[in-house]
Design a protein that fits this description.
alpha/beta, four-stranded mixed β-sheet, 7 strands, three-stranded mixed β-sheet, globular
Length: about 160
């Protein structure tokens, strides 16, 4: 949501990270185009997935790009840590990934939201395993999953 982006931009500036962090006003997802972002009145609960977290909120159209497109356009060869907390859209981001995109990512830390997208946790685990990641994960009774994964180092 725009307010979330503004807070992130302020945090980057306040911590003198402007030379290391670039905040892009876009969503990362399954394809290049636009997508409806359902903005929750509660900070941190906006989502592309309609549900209880975004009731009584607003909807805005935002630019969406696949992660490989973002990496290519910014000339990024390696992602040391990919942090994902996108309130139910995890599988959408993974649908936009390519084998080359996965080769550039060294470590992933993320949440999954089975309550919003049933089975998302298992689909994400399968995708990460398919691309050679070692994984530590848990899924709690509320459908919230936590995953830490890293590319195994070849001997």
């Amino acid at each position: 949501a725009p307010t979330t982006r503004e807070i992130l931009e302020c945090n980057v500036a306040a911590n003198d990270l402007s030379s290391q962090v670039t905040v892009l006003p876009l969503a990362v997802g399954s394809e290049n185009g636009t997508i409806a972002l359902h903005c929750s009145p509660e900070q941190g609960h906006s989502s592309f997935v309609e549900g209880e977290f975004v009731e009584n909120g607003t909807t805005v159209d935002v630019q969406m790009m696949t992660l490989p497109t973002v990496l290519d356009e910014r000339n990024i060869d390696q992602v040391d840590l990919l942090k994902i907390d996108i309130e139910g859209a995890e599988t959408d981001l993974f649908e936009g990934m390519t084998p080359d995109g996965w080769k550039r990512v060294k470590r992933v830390t993320m949440e999954t939201h089975d309550k919003l997208r049933p089975g998302a946790h298992d689909r994400v685990l399968a995708e990460l395993k398919q691309h050679g990641f070692e994984i530590h994960s848990e899924l709690n009774q509320f459908g919230l999953g936590y995953i830490n994964a890293y590319q195994a180092i070849a001997a």
